[in-house]
Amino acid sequence: MPGGRRCTCPDKAEPAFARITTGSTDGMIRLAGGTFQMGTKDKVGFPADGEGPVRHVHLDGFHLDENSVTNADFARFIEQTGYRTDAEAFGYSYVFHLLLEQGLRTELIMLGRQLQGVPWWLHVEGADWRQPEGPGSDLTGRWDHPVVHVSWRDAHAYCVWAGKRLPTEAEIEYAARGGLVQKRYCWGDHLLQRGRHMCNIWQGDFPGVNTADDGFVGTAPARSFEPNGYGLYNMAGNVWEWAFDRWSPTFHVKGPRTNPIGPPEGDRRVTRGGSYLCHDSYCNRYRVAARTSNTPDSSSGNTGFRCARDR
């Protein structure tokens, strides 16, 4: 996922973590909490990301949205608040190359709008949550899809409006496991279940050919595929989801084991779950213990979020 934008805006200050018990629990699953085994020693992962060690973490009970916040949900927030997202303020966001019309894709490549190191991401002026592929695109047929092109700060602002908060990284992993212990995926150890696709990830030869064997090239509706053992949809694949925590590949090794919230300082925030662009040959971070990060004002066409709240 692209990243690297960074600015300081007083009206979008990064807050301290706070327990929240005010928002509606409609459309949320109540999770009992308790002690679970977080992390992995899986050798197919990315050790440098700090996926391990396996450690026992205790969480108090909490609520979590059944699915990612949708375009329809976010539109209500914008209508009621007039909020302006970071992508709108910057005037651009990042779009995966195959989602763009061929002529525009060629033009942007000629203009040098490819992101260094990950040339399949293109800087598209005017791309934002309303126009996911830039001017001329819209949300027709996608109101029930996850909202994308939202930064961590945008996600936090939505949560405040809804009387909720972003989930912690530990809460996301606990929820994604769905009651399973040390399984590779949200549903078990095998990517396919009885020959069925269980999430929306890349099928084919990344980054040039997506066969869409799982039914989707870009985002899928937020309630696609079977929910996991806790009744939660798309805890793997579809879109990356922001966690509250600041990023560190090492803090958790000796960090808190009860309701951890990550390091107190840092210039990046955790994302979890992988997206429709993840593929075994490149980024198999749809595994339940996988993690990555981005700057809190960055946005892209494969990053969204869901909300949590306390009891």
Rounded mean pLDDT score: 95
Q: Assign the CATH superfamily of the domain at 35-67 and 145-310.
A: paralog of FGE (formylglycine-generating enzyme)
| CATH 2nd-level architecture of the domain at 35-67 and 145-310 | Alpha-Beta Complex
- Which segments are poorly predicted (pLDDT under 50) over 5 or more consecutive residues? none
CATH class of the domain at 35-67 and 145-310: Alpha Beta
Describe the structure.
- This protein is α+β, with helices and mostly antiparallel strands.
- The chain has a domain at 35-67 and 145-310: paralog of FGE (formylglycine-generating enzyme) (Alpha-Beta Complex), CATH 3.90.1580.10.
- It is built from five helices and 14 strands.
- The chain has helices at residues 71-81, 86-90, 102-110, 152-162, 169-177, and strands at residues 28-31, 34-38, 55-59, 62-65, 92-96, 114-115, 118-125, 204-205, 209-210, 240-246, 269-272, 292-294, 303-304, 308-310.
- A four-stranded mixed sheet has the order 12-11-10-13. A three-stranded antiparallel sheet has the order 1-4-14, with no helix packed on it.
- A hairpin with a 3-residue loop joins β8 and β9 (209-210).
- The radius of gyration is 18 Å and the shape is globular.
